[in-house]
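Structure Section — protein described below
Tokens — whole-number codes for backbone shape
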Amino acid sequence: MCLAIPMQISHIDGFNARCTAKGVQRDASLFLLQDEDVQVGDYVLIHVGYAIQKISGQEAQTSWELFDAMYAQEIAGA
């Protein structure tokens, strides 16, 4: 199973972006989205260091809520 993490772009330099999610920052490549209009403030799905899809802020929030619920359930069952 593959997992892509929603992150918000905070800085763009060419095809490289600095992305943030829940206080964690990572560098990611925008190369796979070169045909899309990607701007600072946009949300993208990050997989293995690459932005693979642009998503809405609502989609990012919904994903984080689901991840938080799954984590809480895992901790409760441990």
The beta strands are 5-13, 16-21, 24-29, 43-47, 50-55. Residues 5-77 form a domain with the SH3 type barrels. fold (CATH 2.30.30.140).
